[in-house]
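Title: Comparing notes on inverse folding

I've been comparing how different people in this forum approach sequence design from structure. To keep things fair, I'm posting one structure and asking everyone to reply with a full sequence. Here's the target:
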């Protein structure tokens, strides 16, 4: 998109196409995310969509970028924890990770990413980049706890903690009330993640 010199009206059209694409993705998954379907949703020509998104892949990428930015804005915005308190920073990050599973848009979007990544290399790249970022953010916060262990050992603990946190994909699907309504459950999960990071 950076290569296109667009007017304000063009920028508005791009935003409308991406928004329609996001709605299609969340409702029906990646197979529904075609230029023809988006054009029909918006009541514009296929050529109009193709002008801004010459390939299906460019449309998919724009929609994924949009949804990922929305996800970070909603769930990982400005931190509230005391910047001098490494434990509070770590706990806040973990609690935000837990809380995001109360958001159906997050559950649906990441489920589509995970499923489609198995059959599409470019979606797999996005999935892998997301998880590498999650790993790095958790690793950096765990490192700040000064646990007195080497990076290799900490890496294994962070990966184990990620297994626990990502298990919320499954649990939130059939027991969504646990994530959204059970303070006790969240606190046990936070305690468990801390125990893993500390090797307890």
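Reply #1:
Here's my take.
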């Amino acid at each position: 998109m950076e290569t296109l010199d667009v007017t304000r009206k063009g920028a508005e059209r791009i935003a409308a196409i991406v928004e329609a694409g996001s709605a299609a993705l969340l409702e029906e998954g990646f197979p529904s995310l075609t230029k023809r379907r988006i054009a029909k949703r918006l009541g514009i020509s296929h050529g109009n969509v193709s002008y801004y998104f010459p390939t299906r892949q460019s449309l998919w990428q724009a929609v994924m970028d949009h949804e990922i930015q929305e996800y970070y804005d909603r769930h990982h915005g400005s931190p509230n924890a005391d910047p001098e308190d490494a434990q509070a920073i770590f706990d806040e990050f973990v609690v935000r990770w837990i809380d995001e599973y109360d958001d159906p848009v997050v559950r649906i979007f990441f489920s589509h990413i995970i499923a489609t990544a198995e059959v599409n290399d470019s979606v797999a790249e996005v999935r892998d980049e997301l998880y590498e970022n999650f790993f790095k953010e958790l690793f950096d916060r765990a490192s700040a706890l000064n646990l007195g262990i080497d990076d290799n050992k900490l890496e294994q603990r962070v990966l184990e903690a990620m297994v626990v946190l990502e298990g919320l994909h499954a649990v939130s699907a059939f027991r969504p009330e646990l994530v959204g309504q059970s303070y006790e459950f969240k606190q046990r999960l936070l305690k468990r993640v801390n125990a893993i990071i500390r090797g307890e």
